[in-house]
């Protein structure tokens, strides 16, 4: 009888303990966003989930057999709990040479541990291989003179030292990639635009940055020539509105003018993003040579025309037209402006049947409103080769070619590229001088 009582007493004492052990949980831990590089003070964010809460979190960096603690947070321990329901937590800290001065440039491992605040106190660990970066990048620009037309292009060369993952030119909110100068070790160049919508007071710079948050910039000599772009009223007829809406939004419904304005605004922006994204399909080599061809035709619209759309005597919209409208006879053959590779040849909203020809290093020419394609994506073409026929597809009131060019996804004034002297002075001489 005595032994039975002992068993009962032990059971009474042990069952709650066992129950608490069984109900104890293991935390879930996520390093988000992922960290791959650590500098002096690199932000690290973690997401921790445990229904009983977290007892402590410890973060450290291991390198060459040594461990350096960079963060710790400890809370009062709770062994006995009666309910669940602690919400997930987001925690942040900084890791790097500021709180672990012994770290050196090179490979390391970031380790984060979280312990559950319950009886069992289970610990989970997450780790990431990282690169410690103690030397920030430095950048030095060329000493050339850079005369830049607003809406046009230029080319700058520069050198970068230290650890970097991104380098190029930037003006305001616009960034342009860089590429190695052919045959010149340690030199890079950026073919960049000075977009039409930038204030003429914007200062262009070259830059280099790394994921640890370090960025270096360098100034170069430049002079910007401001441009005044034309403003025009464009009358909308009922027949034109109906033609555009029926062609571009055949399955839509509702008021024709409302649908037209959506096409002229939202669809235009989406189409321009599609064109800009084609910069990712550029070849990292020069495909073109000499001045670009301009189709022998009448200029109907200029680059960056500011158009006010007038419908029944009332202004209903305003958009900027980023290209030239060149008109001639119907179904006029369209020559490739220069050598290159076709990266797009299909229907594209307001541009109708559209071709994009890549000339390398982010430079591309655009041909819109075509009636017929003579090429397909992937084709290599030569300057002057017929790639299509003019038409009135998309947002076009009559047969013509919409011709434009872009640098790294930013549309530019093509006039410069029709000028052999400009190409030599502003582009080729900068490369050959390195």
Instruction: Summarize the main sheet.
Output: 9 strands, mixed
- On the 0-100 scale, what is the average pLDDT? 90
Proportion of strand residues: 35-45%
Unreliably modeled segments = 17-22
Radius of gyration: 31 Å
Structural class: alpha+beta
Residues in helix, %:
10-25%
* Discrete helix count: 4
Principal-axes geometry comes out as: globular
Q: Terminal Cα separation, in Å? A: 100 Å
- Strand tally is 30
Structural account:
The protein has 434 residues and is an alpha+beta fold. Helix content is 16%, strand content 43%. The protein has four helices and 30 strands. The chain has helices at residues 2-23, 238-248, 256-277, 420-432; strands at residues 28-31, 37-38, 42-49, 54-63, 66-74, 89-95, 106-116, 123-132, 138-141, 146-149, 153-161, 166-171, 174-177, 179-180, 187-193, 205-209, 215-219, 222-225, 231-236, 298-311, 314-327, 333-335, 340-347, 353-358, 363-370, 372-373, 380-381, 386-389, 401-407, 410-412. The strands form seven sheets. Strands 19, 20, 21, 23, 24, 25, 27, 29 and 30 form a nine-stranded mixed sheet that branches. It has a five-stranded mixed sheet with strand order 2-8-7-4-5, with no helix packed on it. Strand 20 (298-311) and strand 21 form a beta hairpin. The longest helix is centred in the N-terminal third of the chain and has 22 residues, at 2-23. The protein starts with a helix and ends with a helix. Mean pLDDT is 90; it is low at 17-22.
